[in-house]
Design brief:
single chain; alpha+beta; Deoxyribonuclease I, Chain A; seven-stranded mixed sheet; 15 helices; 29% helix; 21% strand; CCR4/nocturin_mRNA_transcr; 3'-5'-RNA exonuclease activity; Endo/exonu/phosph_ase_sf; Angel homolog 1
Length: 654
């Protein structure tokens, strides 16, 4: 030990060049003591600084892990240097080894220089600490998380955004070890450039609940090829029960499911006129048209749109009726008949229903001139009795309509013209039951048939007894045979009112039950079977009973536009719906174009007579209508759906 101490003293006596010493002739004996004192002061200062830094590190949890490692290494290296300097005498010649932040060794030759290096390191660490201890607003307001949910991942990726987004409002989320840090997430905004193409706004989206269906040419009957081109006229027919407001208010229980606003007439009338304008029919047949609404709202608007209207109100106390309107630019009126079904003298027809029959002629424009062109078109519109139990009354009312249509057809046939027919209305009868079969097949065997079965609106078979039909259905005083034809020439009967006779036959029949007719004159000659009180056994009465058998027939060839089953699904079509259910009671019947006969083919006739169905507006199922909250609603203004069909009429060659 004495040898080592002596050797140390020998080495300390050797001169060491000092750059910062003011005088090179400093006392060599005092140099080791001064140097050791400075080194001890420097080491104590460094130890104090490192401890202060460690305490600050513990107090500041925001300091990065990398900075903690550097501080730990610096403290460890300085402690080692201190031990080496005091034990092994490595500080000979005043040279000290300092571990820099970048891991390299730096030498210094004086305590003042060593102290300056230590102060530099402290300043660097303080600057780094100041950077990492910035407030969350200063640190995160300029960044946005792009690697997912910040609450689920400790490793975050941030993307610098423009300063213009600094003012955005957003949310602050804790992140990092122990959730000690905080990140600011602004509101999400889509970038200017997107993977998806920008869709420009077009017309407002509208659901088409009802679509137009064209008739498939392959499904039609095969006709003989037309060898001669003929001119044709396409026209559209609409049949619509628009629900009279008076009837709606009398039967409010049927519309308890409807919002109050859709039951107001002003709201329904607006939708009704829009629907008519949308489909723009050339011929419009309306039922349940309230008289005051017709004159105040419907007729003025329809007249402005070019329609000519014919209206017939129901007899009795009811305020609604039927109307037929046609475009004056497409058709000209040739004849009109307004029918009333109230015939009290018959004892059967005691209900106040009506019908309208028009004879129209198509108009064509040739060389700036409008001319009438054939063949004529008979348009009929009616609303039969609703009562499901009175099938006998419905058949009698229908017979009056068919007799009038037959008379119009005969009048055209007398002039050598073929008359096509379009028969519209609310028939209050469901498809494929007796009344419907009678219209489409032209024949009905009704003997002992229950009256409720005629229309099929209600099944009353559970009742022990019910009314049945027996021949004849109506008395001869109605003037209509069982073939639904007038028994006398209706034109002659009408002309008799202004002819040589003072009174018509129909007028005299109405007087047969008056009180004066029941008083027997005093001088009346007694003639058996004529002036006595015995039943009439004349041949005419017996012949009528024989003619009126248990079968009804008519001569008008009619077919329904709709097939009453939705294609694809097989669900039944519905034309009316209220709280008690939905069914089909509205129809458009027409005289179809039939295949050519052999005789017509032999004469190379261009085509069969009749109308060709081009297309129709689809109907809906009951389930779909209930999904729209039933009828009426915000789309359909009535408890009935409109029926629309388009026909093609071949014009005469002339």
């Amino acid at each position: 030990m004495q040898d080592q101490s002596g050797e140390m003293k020998e080495r300390l006596k050797e001169p060491v060049p000092q750059e910062n010493t003011p005088s090179p002739n400093r006392d060599e004996e005092n140099l080791p003591a001064v140097l050791q004192k400075d080194m001890k002061n420097d080491a104590a200062a460094q130890t104090t600084d490192m401890q202060t830094t460690v305490e600050e590190e513990r107090e500041d949890p925001k300091m990065g892990d990398g900075e903690k490692v550097v501080l730990h290494d610096i403290m460890h290296d300085n402690q080692n240097e201190k031990e080496i300097s005091t034990s092994s005498g490595d500080n000979v010649d005043g040279i000290l080894k300092i571990l820099t932040l970048d891991g390299s060794m730096e030498k210094t030759n004086c305590p003042e220089q060593n102290r300056s290096k230590t102060e530099n390191r402290k300043e660097m660490l303080q600057a780094s600490d100041a950077d990492t201890s910035k407030s969350p607003d200063e640190c995160w307001d300029d960044y946005i998380v792009t690697t997912g949910n910040p609450l689920l991942s400790n490793s975050q990726t941030f993307l610098k955004i423009d300063e213009q987004h600094d003012a955005q409002t957003g949310w602050h989320f804790p992140v990092g070890p122990g959730l000690a840090q905080e990140v600011f997430c602004p509101q999400w905004s889509f970038p200017a450039a997107s993977y998806y193409t920008t869709v420009e706004p077009t017309v407002p989206f509208e659901v088409m609940w009802r679509v137009w269906e064209d008739v498939d040419a392959d499904s039609e009957s095969v006709l003989t090829p037309i060898t001669i081109k003929t001119a044709s006229l396409d026209f559209t027919v609409m049949s619509y029960n628009i629900l009279a407001q008076d009837l709606l208010e009398l039967n409010q229980h049927l519309y308890a499911h409807c919002p109050l606003e859709v039951l107001q007439w002003s709201y329904r009338c607006n939708l009704l006129l829009k629907e008519i304008e949308k489909w723009a029919p050339d011929i419009l047949c309306l039922q349940e048209v309230q008289e005051n609404h017709y004159h105040e709202h419907l007729h003025p608007v329809l007249s402005q749109r070019g329609y000519i209207c014919v209206y017939q109100r129901r007899t009795g106390t009811k305020t609604d009726g039927c109307a037929v309107c046609y475009q004056s630019s497409r058709f000209a009126e040739a004849a009109v008949s307004k029918l009333e079904f109230f015939r009290p003298e018959t004892g059967l027809l005691d209900r106040h229903n009506v019908g309208v029959v028009l004879l129209l002629r198509p108009l064509v424009t040739t060389e700036a001139e409008v001319k009438e062109a054939g063949p004529p078109l008979c348009v009929a519109n009616t609303h039969l009795l609703f009562n499901p139990r009175r099938g006998d009354v419905k058949l009698a009312q229908l017979a009056i309509m068919l007799a009038e249509i037959d008379a119009v057809i005969k009048s055209c046939k007398a002039r050598g013209e073929h008359c096509n027919v379009v028969f519209c209305g609310d028939f209050n009868s469901i498809p494929h039951l007796p009344l419907y079969q009678f219209i489409t097949t032209g024949e009905l065997s009704y003997q002992r048939m229950p009256t409720w079965m005629v229309s099929g609106q209600e099944d009353l078979s559970y009742k022990p007894s019910y009314h049945r039909l027996f021949a004849p259905l109506w008395p001869s005083s109605l003037g209509i045979s069982d073939t639904c034809q007038y028994t006398t020439d209706i034109n002659k009967t009408r002309s008799q009112n202004s002819g040589t006779r003072g009174y018509s036959h129909e007028f005299m029949l109405q007087l047969r039950f008056c009180p004066a007719a029941c008083v027997r004159p005093e001088n009346l000659v007694l003639i058996p079977g004529v002036t006595d009180i015995k039943p009439d056994t004349s041949e005419d009465a017996q012949s009528y009973e024989k003619r009126f058998r248990d079968c009804l027939k008519h001569q008008v060839d009619l077919e329904s536009v709709y097939k009453h089953v939705l294609p694809g699904s097989g669900f039944p079509e519905v034309t009316t719906l209220h709280s008690e259910g939905g069914t089909t009671v509205d129809y458009i019947f027409y005289s179809p174009k039939r295949p050519l006969t052999k005789k017509q083919r032999a004469y190379k006739t261009s085509g069969g007579k009749g109308l060709k169905l081009v297309g129709s507006l689809s109907l809906l199922s009951e389930d779909l209508l209930w999904s729209l909250n039933g009828l009426p609603n915000h789309i359909f203004p009535s408890d009935h759906l409109s029926l629309v069909a388009r026909f093609q009429l071949e014009l005469d060659d002339a």
